[in-house]
Amino acid sequence: MDLAAANQPWAITSTGVDYITATASEPRHVAVLVAIGRSLCDAASKRGDEQEPWSWQGYQGRTSPQASYGLRQDGMIIRLSGTTAQEKWHELVPLAAKVSRLDLQVTVRRDAYEGSLAQDGRRTAILHQAGEGRPPRITLILGHPRGDTLYIGSRSSDRFGRVYDKHESSPTDHPPGTWRYEVESKREVARLLARTILGSRDRERAIQSYVHNWFNMRGVPPVWDSETLYQERAPTRPTTTETRLAWLRSSVAPLIRRMEAKIGREAVLEALGLDTPRRPSGMQWIDHPDKGD
Prior knowledge:
Elements: H1 3-6, E1 11-24, H2 27-46, E2 52-56, E3 59-64, E4 67-72, E5 75-81, H3 82-92, E6 98-109, H4 117-129, E7 138-141, E8 149-152, E9 159-165, H5 166-169, E10 178-186, H6 187-198, H7 203-216, H8 240-263, H9 265-271
Helix pairs in contact: 8-9
């Protein structure tokens, strides 16, 4: 083996969001997200990609290679993948009631690399797990036709990682020696992570830091150096307030919206004891302009 090539540093070739699923129920947000989904599907058709009817769990809409969206009585859903997810995810998150899945990726490349980061990662993960109480599941898939892939964790869990040969999975788009580290987050973990990354001053570096720390904590040190911009925190038990707010959002809010449509907002607020108090005579209130969501 060429020693110069073996000592060559790895280069990060891309960083970003590779997949996102978001839902919305607020009518204004639904309208905007449907318009985004429709525009993406129409753009795909103009490029010559197929566009087809799509349905899932009661949602009805359309799908194209990197975008799907649908409507049902209580709101809408939109799913984006690949470059479309990277380009549009930041428009979805502020409007979404939920982000149920978010995949973050860092892709690296080194010329003349003939090894397997998946196999290397399995070896270090096994050594790291020695003595741990309940380590995550490790699965290694070898060889043809899509190259080596290392899976860490369970696909049904809130966090699931994979390291795979990106050249073998997409040979026309990525040259030999290209590998991808990817973390798939779901449910509340995905929602909190999406908002945290969205609010970061340097989103790209924050994603690199999160992905690096996630794998490193599980005994698979990534091949690039990363500053600790985002430290994964252990999941915490929801507080009583958080539990009550979650119940209000999931159970009470839909009923309130239905009642508002039938009898009007003022009647609903009065029934809840939240109606606006009368202004004392001679007193002026200053109404602040709505700053939006």
